[in-house]
Amino acid sequence: QSELESCKELQELEPENKWCLLTIILLMRALDPLLYEKETLQYFQTLKAVDPMRATYLDDLRSKFLLENSVLKMEYAEVRVLHLAHKDLTVLCHLEQLLLVTHLDLSHNRLRTLPPALAALRCLEDPPPRTGAAGQ
């Protein structure tokens, strides 16, 4: 917690320090990903503005974190439904954690493709389309 506060103080002094911004994001993830979710997303926006050359990497990392948070929320609620619509996702990862999911909503994201591993989710009652507009 003290490291996070120190990094935030440094970020106030150097608002465009990309390493400081990334460290803040990673520390918030390590401390409590759900508590800091909204703040983390704000830091991602700032970091993308400061470091546009890594925008794709940052979008993918953001997607990974959002999926991890959604899985945590699903587990805490003890449900098998995962709503990932309108999250601006660019990649899907950790599909092995979704083996028992019965409903998966991936609509309205920026997914370029759907990973072949999606077919391994045998419990899905209404699987997403295999081809077509993955981002729709």
TrEMBL record:
Name of the protein in its database record: Geranylgeranyl transferase type-2 subunit alpha
SUPFAM superfamilies: L domain-like, Protein prenylyltransferase
Gene that encodes the chain: RABGGTA
InterPro entries (UniProt xref): LRR_dom_sf
Family of the protein in this entry: Belongs to the protein prenyltransferase subunit alpha family.
EC number: 2.5.1.60
Presence of the UniProt keyword Repeat in the record: yes
Record's keyword annotation contains rRNA processing: no
Reactions accelerated catalytically: geranylgeranyl diphosphate + L-cysteinyl-[protein] = S-geranylgeranyl-L-cysteinyl-[protein] + diphosphate
GO MF annotations, alphabetized: Rab geranylgeranyltransferase activity
Keywords: Prenyltransferase, Repeat, Transferase
